[in-house]
Amino acid sequence: MTTWLNMSLQDGASPIMEQLIFFHDHTLMIMLMIITTVMYMMTTLLWNKHTSRFMLEGQLIETTWTIAPAIILVFIAMPSLRLLYLMDEIHNPTMTLKAVGHQWYWSYEYSDFTKLEFDSYMIPQEENQASTFRLLDTDNRIVLPMNSPIRLVVTAADVLHSWTIPSLGVKTDATPGRLNQVSFSINHPGILYGQCSEICGANHSFMPITIESVSANHFINMSLKPKSIIS
């Protein structure tokens, strides 16, 4: 979860998010090298007093500054395309979770183990306790097993929403009349927070998402008692 004065990305809670962070660092280093080179050349030109009346063309340097950016773009495009294909891949999911966006709350359905449906509302400020986070915690959390491929199916009942968990690297639009699908796997146990990232009305800021990641054995024991999944 993002904290005060946190200037970097959140710690990745899924393999995809970890790869996204690596790609961000990779691209940032390339940008840093480009900025350093350009600033050095600009500074050199500003302080250089040498001129030449006879230099009218320079095919070599023109060829160089045409080919060099193309090579740099290839170094950025290759890992980017790899990540795009990885994010679209569905890896034989062990379970499916359906999320339906409403104004202004989420409802969820577990359809693999038991036919379990529940609504998830933000905890009001007057009921907020010291152990919860303002505008981020919900009355009913999603409980999911860690280290298991999970398929998420997202739709909406009224207007456009967006189901977003930054630490998982997941952002999926919830569109009325359409099912969008995404898969992810959680690396470690804990509580993950997210919010709707599509402006969907007056209370758009008040429909958070809370996931509780547990071990697979613990989740199976909970699935034998469906009511215990709603935490």
From TrEMBL:
Molecular function terms, GO-annotated: copper ion binding; cytochrome-c oxidase activity; oxidoreductase activity
Membrane topology: Multi-pass membrane protein
Record domain Cytochrome oxidase subunit II transmembrane region profile: where: 1-91
Reactions this protein catalyses: 4 Fe(II)-[cytochrome c] + O2 + 8 H(+)(in) = 4 Fe(III)-[cytochrome c] + 2 H2O + 4 H(+)(out)
CC terms in the record's Gene Ontology section: mitochondrial inner membrane
Transmembrane spans: 27-47, 67-85
UniProt keyword Magnesium, yes or no: yes
Localization per record: Mitochondrion inner membrane
Pfam families according to UniProt: COX2, COX2_TM
Domain Cytochrome oxidase subunit II copper A binding: 92-225
Keyword Aminoacyl-tRNA synthetase: no
Gene Ontology terms: biological process: ATP synthesis coupled electron transport
Cofactor: Cu cation
Free-text cofactor note: Binds a copper A center.
The entry's keywords: Copper, Electron transport, Magnesium, Membrane, Metal-binding, Mitochondrion, Mitochondrion inner membrane, Respiratory chain, Translocase, Transmembrane, Transmembrane helix, Transport
The protein's role, per its UniProt record: Component of the cytochrome c oxidase, the last enzyme in the mitochondrial electron transport chain which drives oxidative phosphorylation. The respiratory chain contains 3 multisubunit complexes succinate dehydrogenase (complex II, CII), ubiquinol-cytochrome c oxidoreductase (cytochrome b-c1 complex, complex III, CIII) and cytochrome c oxidase (complex IV, CIV), that cooperate to transfer electrons derived from NADH and succinate to molecular oxygen, creating an electrochemical gradient over the inner membrane that drives transmembrane transport and the ATP synthase.
Family membership noted in the UniProt record: Belongs to the cytochrome c oxidase subunit 2 family.
Oligomeric and partner information: Component of the cytochrome c oxidase (complex IV, CIV), a multisubunit enzyme composed of a catalytic core of 3 subunits and several supernumerary subunits. The complex exists as a monomer or a dimer and forms supercomplexes (SCs) in the inner mitochondrial membrane with ubiquinol-cytochrome c oxidoreductase (cytochrome b-c1 complex, complex III, CIII).
Protein name: Cytochrome c oxidase subunit 2
